[in-house]
Design brief:
69 residues; 4 helices; elongated
């Protein structure tokens, strides 16, 4: 997407909400988050690709937040 829009558009996403956020480990979330950040470039907002399931382990939510620090 960055190739098409350049740095004038902020891209958001795209950690898989099921296979990574819900079913993955905190390390899976961290790795997927870092890949998203690297692939998208800046400006970028890290988030799940869709709604995060209610049953998502809190440790995985924490790992998503920690990936940007």
């Amino acid at each position: 997407a960055r190739h098409y829009f350049g740095s004038q558009v902020c891209i958001c996403g795209n950690v898989d909400p099921i296979s990574v956020m819900l079913e993955g480990t905190p390390e899976d979330v961290r790795q997927a988050s870092l890949r998203c950040i690297e692939d998208a470039g800046m400006p970028f907002i890290l988030s799940a690709g869709c709604e995060i399931p209610v049953a998502t382990p809190p440790e995985n939510l924490h790992a998503l937040c920690q990936a940007v620090l």
